[in-house]
Each structure stands twice: as C-alpha cells, then as structure tokens.
Amino acid sequence: MSPKKYLSIFSAIFILILxxxxxxxxxxxxxxxxxxxxxxxxxxxxxxxQLTDALKSGVQGGTIILTITETxxxxxxxxxxxxxxxxxFTEPQxxxxxxQMQIYGRAHxxxxxxxxxxxxxVGIDVEGQPTITITSADFGPFPAxxxxxxxxxxxxxxxxxGAVGPVATGFRIENIIITDGFIVMSxxxx
Length: 190
Fold this sequence. Notes:
The protein is an alpha+beta fold. The chain has 4 helices and 8 strands. It has one domain. Strand 7 (171-179) and strand 8 form a beta hairpin. Helix 2 (41-58) crosses helix 3. The longest helix has 20 residues, at 3-22. The protein is elongated, with a radius of gyration of 22 Å.
C-alpha cells in the first residue's frame, strides 16, 4: 500500500474516533411520554404572577383556589435547572396525571446520557404546607444522585413559596388535587 492510502485510512479512523468522542451516547432509561410540554419564560412568569395575585386577594378573606398547568411548572423547573451549575438533570418535562407529578428529564455523566423518570406525590402537612415525597426515581443505568429527594423537594417548594416571597407566609393549603394536566390547590391566608 502506498503512503497516501495509509494516510487516508489513518485520517478516516482518526476522524471517526474524534466524532465518537464529540458525541454523547444515550444509554436508556424510562421513555418520555409522547406529548412534549413547551418551555417558556412567559409561562414561568405567569406562574409567579398568578400566585402573587391570588395570595394578595386572599388577604381580604375567603378561600383561594390556585390552578397550575403543566406548562407553567415545566417552564419554572426548566429555568431553575438551567440556572444551576451542575443540575441533577436537564430538559425537564412535568406531567400532572393520576394524582402524581411525573417528572422526566435527561441525566448526563461524561459522554453518556440517560433518560430520567421521577414520580412525586404531593400532600399537605399539619401546618398547611406542601409535602413532597418521591415515590420512585429511575435514572436508567445511573445511580440516583445523593440528595435527590431534598434537592428536588427544595425546587418544587420554591415553585410554591419562592416565587411569591413573604406574601405566602400565611397561606395554608387545605386541599391539593393533581389531575388531567393541572395542580389545583385551595386554602386560606391565616
């Protein structure tokens, strides 16, 4: 073989190796649902505005009913994860179905990417604040990160309280229902 052919073969192999290293490899995990929830800054901001307005009106008395959509909670979570230096996962999709918050995303380790599925149950504690319980977490072949429960619970609680600041301190939730793409919370400002 001529030196030109060796150089061509070597170049092709070298390019193939570089292309392989530059790409990530999906190593499985739970399948995303078919419906894709759009992410937007406007939806995240509308969640904050909606919570603030509802709580301000609740100061005057009566029951407050908050309805949060999949688009709002997905957008809020996506923006929170984007702001983190090393997020637990990326590309979140939050489905509100069958009494659960079903969170999907992608976890990265080196050149490998795995789909993530986290099922969350949301309840109410004795003080009328939301409780977050992770009922299952599937990170594909990756181990679930240490501190998953506390980190995810903090992000979800911030979606409830962090967006509205001190206005939320007196709000006591009396009922939470998750169904058909919505979280509906009712309660009163005490």
